[in-house]
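Quick one, probably user error.
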């Protein structure tokens, strides 16, 4: 953790800039899109700082980087969501969750975690269903399935009961859960009812989630360093 911390300083500074400026969402602009995406750009740099060879040779890390790229595009679309780009942002983040799921892998399977995540995802959709109409009835269902699957794969990797967990696997799991909190808050605020301090909750959990998921990509590098030392 100490070795990765300094590489995250630009991300923390960019996040502070976003919250300090707190640009109004009522007047979308390319500048506000840049400020919103800047912390995610810094996470690109964080992963690239580990070297191109590392990203090329480790598919999980490269897929997380690709997910961060689609996330930034999704963030930009959501700046103009009132102009009809909400679905575009939904699509970009759907692709992000597919990439993250692929990065986390299918081993171990952990069907109990999958069942738990299935119950949580189904419950969330059941609550939202009566508020949805038109294409969102199906789009939100698909999106919840994708983020729920991503959450399952992140949770399955922790293996707390078997004492096989690492800090990076735990980071991925917590990041996935925070991502779900962020997106659920968006859904409640967009389709159901105004959520107090919704923007603060959404962005704080979102940036924390992306940082933790980006941190999980360095696990393979840690394992290599350990093997070299031993």
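Nope, works fine. Designed sequence:
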């Amino acid at each position: 953790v100490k070795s990765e911390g300094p590489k995250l300083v630009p991300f923390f500074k960019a996040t502070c800039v976003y919250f300090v400026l707190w640009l109004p969402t009522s007047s979308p602009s390319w500048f506000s899109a840049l400020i919103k995406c800047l912390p995610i750009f810094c996470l690109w740099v964080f992963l690239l700082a580990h070297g191109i060879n590392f990203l090329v040779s480790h598919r999980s890390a490269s897929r997380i980087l690709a997910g961060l790229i689609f996330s930034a595009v999704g963030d930009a679309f959501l700046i103009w969501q009132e102009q009809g780009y909400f679905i575009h942002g939904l699509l970009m983040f759907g692709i992000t969750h597919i990439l993250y799921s692929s990065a986390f892998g299918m081993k171990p399977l952990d069907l109990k975690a999958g069942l738990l995540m299935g119950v949580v995802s189904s419950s969330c959709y059941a609550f939202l269903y009566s508020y949805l109409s038109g294409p969102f009835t199906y789009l939100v269902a698909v999106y919840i399935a994708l983020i729920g699957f991503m959450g399952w794969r992140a949770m399955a990797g922790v293996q707390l009961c078997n004492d096989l967990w690492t800090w990076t696997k735990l980071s991925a799991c917590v990041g996935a859960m925070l991502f779900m909190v962020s997106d659920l808050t968006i859904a409640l605020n967009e389709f159901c009812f105004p959520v107090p301090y919704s923007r603060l909750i959404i962005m704080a959990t979102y940036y924390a989630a992306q940082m933790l998921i980006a941190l999980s990509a360095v696990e393979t590098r840690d394992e290599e360093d350990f093997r070299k030392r031993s």
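Residues 125 and 141 are 7 Å apart (CA to CA).
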